[in-house]
Predict the structure.
Amino acid sequence: MTALAVNSENCDVADIEDVRTLPLVSTDQGARGGESTATRRERKEKTRQSLLAAALDLLADRGFASLSLREVAKRAGIVPTAFYRHFASMDELGVALVEESMRTLRTMIRSARTDPSDEAFGGIIRVSVRTLHRHVRAHEDHFRFLTRERYGGTGPVARAVAMELRLFSSELAVDLARFEFLREWSTEDLHMMADLIVTSMQATVLDLLEVRPGDGATDEAIVKTAEKRLRLIVLGVANWQSKHSPASDREHPRLV
Amino acid sequence: MTALAVNSENCDVADIEDVRTLPLVSTDQGARGGESTATRRERKEKTRQSLLAAALDLLADRGFASLSLREVAKRAGIVPTAFYRHFASMDELGVALVEESMRTLRTMIRSARTDPSDEAFGGIIRVSVRTLHRHVRAHEDHFRFLTRERYGGTGPVARAVAMELRLFSSELAVDLARFEFLREWSTEDLHMMADLIVTSMQATVLDLLEVRPGDGATDEAIVKTAEKRLRLIVLGVANWQSKHSPASDREHPRLV
DNA sequence: GACTCCAGTGAACAGATGTACACTGAACAG
DNA sequence: CTGTTCAGTGTACATCTGTTCACTGGAGTC
């Protein structure tokens, strides 16, 4: 138990970050072989990545809860006990996986935000859904992990995912607030709308992850449905608005 | 292995149904004690229910995949090996649980359908959401199980849930088709709309299941948000309609 | 009353699991 | 060159898992 505590103190992410502040000039001296030999920290980081990759790999068709430490270690090519050099428990590995997956998701958001799309909601919808589609296909494992653990999980992992997704929805609400004709909406309603959009997007992700080759439903069809769904929501929003404040009966940028 | 096969042949639901066709007059003769003594089939059914209840109980804060046969048996008050008298595997128990939960859900639908609500969508929304709320609170375990396994599970259990939910969504689409001003919608679009509604309802269920006492969010707030979400969707639908077929610009029954 | 059936028992198994412990050897610091 | 650090190894153990097998005793049948 004492040994475990020591491990958890020495092998955290925090540790790696701390170490970065130490003098690491010795790399020039140490890394002479070029490839076979590497600095100790490099090696450690590498097997850490192996562990994460191994876990993600095994998670392709199972829940995180059914993953055993030994299994992950074996697939990563290390002995079970060496696992503790990197994570104090499977839960910690899981949280790290959430962070990694969330990085993917955030990259997607940034990509969608900075995309050259005009002010029209219709353009935004098309671009957003296509961005989503592209990223889901490029990182299926991450998205699968996130959706699965969000609803299926229970431990610290599920909590971490839930928190991040709530944050995500809030950010979207802020984005929405920028739109001219949503200016008069209450924050509460904006959040409601953001949640609806996020929920709808999650459904799309699920659809994309569940298509089996030769299942009838193609990616194209799913994307089209997703766009329709969002257009439906936006139409509701527009109408809602004009109902509550007649002043905004002026033209909206082409909506659909 | 042979023994197992024999068990799975003898202990299915099918078996119980078959037995019903046999002469069961002997009950009059056998059940004399009144309560302590019971017919053999009654006893069996009772411990079967115990098994299902035990599993559902354990599933309160865990995934089905992390449930062990021994655990369930122990909580049901029987020895592990006796489990096989009722189910050939945990998966089979899981599927039975899906059926039981789905019965709850269908009861809810029927209750919502036959409720005295006028033709107005607004009334329907209010009644539906309140019906949902009531049933979720009355059978939290069932709803928790269904949502968790739908998204988190992987095995036959998850497949069973997915199938039932798809069916559910289809039924809703048929219901929607009855509305006057949706008559011109394509089946495809109706399904899209039904999916959106079901998805939104699922989100509501999740919200309801995740409130912790003293979490800020009350049941009332969740119900209100849920109603808003649905109203938003319906508004979108109404507008969509009037966009695609100008003929229907006539008055809709008061929508919100 | 004698015989069959079968839900539930209890001991036993092979395998997997998490984790403690003592170790090795190469990267590292002086 | 010398001593330290530490990622990774191998052994070991207690615990839990699914499943087998032979059994018991009471309900059900004739």
Q: What stands out?
A: Chain B is about 70% helix and 0% strand. The interface with chain A takes residues 61-63, 65-66, 147-154, 162, 189, 192-193, 195-196, 199-200, 203, 206, 210, 225, 228-229, 231-240, 243, 256 of chain B (CB under 8 Å). Residues 1, 3-4, 26, 29-30, 37-40, 43, 68-71, 80-81, 84, 89-90 of chain B lie near DNA strand D (CB under 10 Å from a C1'). The radius of gyration of chain B is 23 Å.
